[in-house]
Structures are given as C-alpha cells and as structure tokens.
Amino acid sequence: MMLTPARRESANDGPASWQQLPHGVWMQQQLSHVFGPYSAKIFGYYLARVGHLAKELELPELRVRHQFSAAQHGESNILAELEYWPFAENALDAVVMIGQLEFERDPHQVLREMSRSLIADGYLLIAGFNPFSPSVLTGCWPGNTKQPPWSGRYFSKARITDWLSLLNFEIIDAGYVAPTLLIARTARADFGLAGITRFIPQLNSMYYIVARKREFPLTVMRVKKRMKPQMNGLPIANRVK
User: For 155-187, how does the pLDDT look when each residue is reduced to its tens digit (9 = 90+)?
Assistant: First the structure.
C-alpha cells in the first residue's frame, strides 16, 4: 500500500483542550498514567509542552525547573509556528507533544525542529490519534468531519517511529492507550472496546511513543595499506628478472 504524502497545503486547528474531545478528561488520565514512569526520569532546566493537550497533561513526577507551553494559537506561554521553532540548538531537555502532528502542515519539519532544539539524550514524549482505531468511524457522522480530532490527518505509530529513527532517536517505549469510540453519549468511555483491546491493543484510540535523542560519535576508520606481493610467492614464469 502506497502512503500518501505527509505534507499538505495548510494546517488545521487542533483541539483547544481535553474537554473538547468526547471523554477527553478520561483520555488525559490514561496518557498521564502511561507517561508517569518516564516523566520521573526527566530532569533538567527546560521542558516544552507543544500544543494545548500537552499543556494540560498532568505529569507530577517531572523534575524540570522551567516548563512552558507553545502553540500557534490560543493561550500559551509562547505563540509560534512549530515549523519555525524559536529555540536555539540543544536548548531543551525534553519536549512533550500530544495530538499535534495530525494538524500540522509539515509534520516532518516539526519533528526536525523538535530534534534540533533537544540536547543530546533529551526526551521526546509523543502521543497521537490512532488511524486503525474504530473511533475513526465516529468522524464520519454528520457534524464530526470538521471537528477535532477527526479534522486532523492521522499517522500510524509505525510511521512516526520511522521518522524518529531517521532523526537518530532511540525508541524507549511505544504502545497504545485509551480504548474509546469517542462517542460522548456512552456512559462509559471504554464502552465496546474495554475487552477487545486487551487482545488487540492496536484498536485503542491513541498511540504513545517515548524516545531519546542520540548523538553517535564518528569513529575514524583507518584504511589498511595494501601489502605488496612477495616475489617468492609468485610463479617462476611471472617473476621479473
């Protein structure tokens, strides 16, 4: 199957808050639980929360002195286009990005900018909406097509993993979370998917990736000198007199 190009002409507005999504608060809690053990390992001076969903994500175990949010629109500490990230190289210790790549014009460029601004061994925590989840079908209902998250362009976990590998990220952990059909009228958030996702986790509504930026040192390879053939080893007819 041929993949469609990731880049498009314009960007769409992503979710303004978790409350905008059906059972959004429950989804936020699911992600906080997954990222919790890794957030306890992150320490340093600066952490960027990219997008409004990342801004509201609760990560109480973080040991970073300064945290700030960044988005193109809305209420954030920094307003900027993610394709032109206003941070110097090797300036951030960690980046958290939730449900944002789906709405960007050029997700490749966004990831390159995140990589550029991270220090060596810096953490990148990403979560997005799973294109293989049945929750995608809910977006076909009238009125949902132009609403987030269905208005975004979904990318699979495997595709994002490949992009990160090209940027020299090491994947520490990856998986799926939040088994929900994204139907607000259901009494339970995991209605219809709670049991099946235990055996088929790829049906969860979101994926998550924990990655670290690696910088491998270049090793100088010495070229061995070619040994001159010994005259004694040549046949008599080939020897030069």
Answer: 999 999 999 999 999 999 999 999 999 999 998
Handedness of CA 75, 78, 80, 84 (dihedral sign): negative
Q: What residue type is 105 in one-letter code?
A: R
Strand, helix or coil for residue 236: helix
Query: What is the reported pTM?
Result: 0.86
At 32 the three-state DSSP class reads: helix
- At 192 the pLDDT is 87
Q: What are the residue ranges in the chain where pLDDT is below 50?
A: 1, 218
Question: If you search the block for the tokens 């294109």, which residue do you land on?
Answer: 131
Question: How confident is the model over 73-92, as pLDDT tens digits?
Answer: 888 999 989 999 999 999 99
Pick the CATH number of 18-238 from 3.90.105.10, 3.40.50.150, 3.30.420.40, 3.30.470.20: 3.40.50.150
Tell me what pLDDT residue 28 has.
Answer: 97
Domains of the chain by residue range = 18-238
